[in-house]
């Protein structure tokens, strides 16, 4: 990347091509050859949305403009690559107009940083501050390989990636006070939120190539981009009324996003990487990370999240709030949110992302083929202790039939949601059996927040089958018979997995559970016996999985296992 850390020409992004060969490339080569790139290979999964939002998407959008109609979007998609004219415009953008803005160690305008940023204390911090999996300050993850006293020498490529990651996912709370920040008190700022993506459950549509992925993540804007909307590397071009400031960057403020480009490249932190020469070349060992702009609220135009919608919000409450992912749950268990194409008419409910709704509309207009192999990747960080530490990272990949996103075609969507709900209900029935067996043996039901539940093992055991089901249904077309066959196979698989777990639970029950015991529940005496618990579970399972019961020849819901 040279002494300036040239992100345009330097080889710092690991690209895996369609033949599964990896090569380190610069930003320009990555974009102009995106049709031959399958995916990016990044150190941690949460870097992918950071690179996509902070760099790739805004460069393409600003250089080429956003598509203004589904037809224009379709023409770009059908080409499968940037046209020669578009490639020339990207080249001019990155090497001519803004070439100097993509240098990591430029003295006047270092990329994604503030030149001359100085802490009020005059101190710098170890580069571990950029890496949430390494102990630094209040963030002390379990099993961290390094402590704050250890040095972490980041190469220019690593520093660039972690810089982008910090702007999106940095922890909240106390940050170093910077010279010139009016909010700093006693050398620090408090009350800082997490990076913008830390407040979302990130959803990224994925195509067969990086080019397709870029387009799938490009919103169609009938009026185009706002003329005052600029990415972070072009802040100085903003009109004063839009918050334009000095070339060093905008002042510290709480503000709404000025448009899509500003939202994607929002600078939630003021950062300076400090480059040192070592025996192994240039390294970043020290950094300064300070409070940046604070996003007033996540706009409803945010493309990469699903929402919790309230039909009748209370005074001061937003009608729509970003929906976060939950650790321990596979992405397919959240299909209800991914496929929620209509706003809830009453009460609270999920509403899927802008981009997934757009993909459904593109399929309805036959811009996208019914058998297009759409993928969806989900990302999140879970924070603890006032969001000042990272406790868990969430990342998952899910094949998703495009037809299920078409609002007018409910048959496939309803079937997928039913399959996911059956797994959830079967898990709850299994947990109910476990609780009843514990009571029959003289114990108490397991508290909700303690211990491992049999439903967790059940859902894990059927995870691969559900993913194969979703992948296979991407090519189903309008074959209703094939869908019923797939549903029956799914129910049988779920039934067999539930029986295995139930047999394991029954094998561990002591003999006294056969006699059981009587206890008061809500003022009534209830008898808990292993035989009764098994019968209740059997009945529930046959109700939840009717196709499996039919395939097994079960006519009476109290019939024995067959």
Can you walk me through this structure?
This protein has 562 residues and is α+β, with helices and mostly antiparallel strands. Helices cover 34% and strands 17% of the residues. The chain contains 16 helices and 18 strands. The chain has helices at 27-32, 47-64, 70-79, 84-97, 156-169, 210-216, 260-264, 335-338, 354-364, 410-440, 454-461, 463-473, 480-507, 512-515, 530-544, 546-551, and strands at 13-17, 22-25, 37-40, 125-126, 173-176, 188-192, 202-206, 254-255, 269-278, 281-291, 294-295, 307-310, 320-322, 348-351, 375-384, 389-399, 517-521, 524-528. The strands form seven sheets. The chain has a three-stranded antiparallel sheet. The chain has a three-stranded antiparallel sheet with strand order 4-10-9, with helices on one face. A three-stranded antiparallel sheet has the order 7-15-16. A hairpin with a 2-residue loop joins strand 17 and strand 18 (524-528). Helix 2 crosses helix 4 and helix 2 (47-64) packs across helix 5. The radius of gyration is 27 Å and the shape is globular. The N and C termini lie far apart (66 Å).
């Amino acid at each position: 990347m040279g002494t300036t850390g040239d992100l345009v020409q330097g080889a710092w992004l690991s690209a895996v091509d369609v033949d599964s060969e990896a090569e380190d490339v610069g930003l320009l080569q990555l974009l102009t050859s995106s049709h031959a790139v399958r995916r990016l290979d990044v150190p941690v999964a949460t870097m992918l949305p950071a690179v996509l939002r902070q760099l790739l998407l805004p460069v393409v959008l600003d250089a080429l403009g956003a598509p203004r109609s589904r037809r224009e979007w379709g023409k770009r998609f059908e080409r499968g690559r940037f046209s020669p004219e578009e490639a020339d415009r990207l080249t001019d953008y990155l090497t001519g107009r803004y070439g100097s803005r993509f240098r990591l160690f430029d003295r006047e305008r270092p990329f994604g940083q503030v030149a001359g940023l100085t802490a009020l204390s005059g101190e710098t911090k170890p580069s571990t501050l950029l890496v949430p999996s390494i102990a630094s300050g209040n963030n002390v993850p379990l099993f961290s390989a390094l402590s704050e006293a250890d040095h972490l020498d980041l190469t220019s490529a690593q520093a660039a990636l972690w810089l982008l990651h910090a702007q999106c996912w940095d922890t909240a709370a106390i940050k170093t006070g910077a010279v010139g920040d009016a909010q700093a008190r006693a050398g620090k700022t408090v009350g800082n939120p997490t990076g913008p993506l830390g407040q979302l459950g990130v959803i990224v549509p994925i195509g067969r190539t990086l080019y397709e992925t870029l387009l799938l993540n490009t919103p169609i804007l009938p009026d185009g981009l706002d003329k005052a909307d600029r990415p972070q590397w072009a802040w100085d071009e903003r009109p004063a009324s839009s918050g334009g400031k000095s070339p060093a960057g905008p002042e510290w403020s709480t503000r709404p996003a000025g448009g899509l480009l500003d939202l994607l490249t929002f600078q939630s932190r003021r950062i300076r990487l400090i480059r040192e020469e070592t025996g192994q070349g240039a390294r970043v060992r020290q950094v300064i990370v300070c409070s940046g702009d604070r996003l007033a609220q996540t706009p409803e135009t945010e493309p990469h999240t699903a929402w919790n919608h309230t039909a009748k919000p209370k005074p001061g409450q937003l009608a729509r709030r970003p929906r976060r992912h939950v650790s321990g749950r596979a992405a397919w268990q959240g299909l209800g949110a991914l496929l929620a194409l209509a706003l809830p008419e009453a009460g609270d409910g999920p509403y899927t992302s802008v981009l997934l709704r757009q993909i459904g509309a593109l399929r309805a207009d036959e811009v996208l083929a019914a058998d297009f192999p759409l993928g969806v990747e989900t990302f999140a960080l879970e924070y603890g202790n006032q969001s000042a530490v990272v406790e868990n990272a969430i990342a998952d990949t899910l094949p998703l039939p495009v037809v299920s996103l078409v609002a007018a075609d409910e048959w496939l969507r309803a079937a997928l949601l039913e399959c996911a709900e059956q797994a959830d209900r079967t898990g709850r029935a299994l947990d109910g059996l476990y609780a009843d067996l514990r009571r029959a043996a003289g114990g108490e039901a397991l508290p909700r927040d303690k211990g491992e539940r049999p439903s967790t093992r059940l859902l894990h055991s059927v995870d691969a089958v559900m993913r194969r089901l979703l992948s296979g249904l991407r090519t189903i077309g309008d074959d209703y018979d094939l869908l019923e066959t797939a549903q029956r196979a799914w129910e049988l698989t779920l039934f067999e997995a539930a029986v295995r777990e139930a047999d394991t639970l029954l094998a561990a029950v002591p003999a006294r559970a056969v006699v059981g015991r009587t206890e008061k529940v809500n003022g009534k005496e209830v008898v808990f016996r292993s035989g009764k618990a098994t019968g209740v579970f059997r009945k529930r399972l046959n109700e939840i999985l009717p196709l499996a019961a039919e395939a097994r020849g079960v006519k009476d819901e109290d019939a024995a296992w067959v």
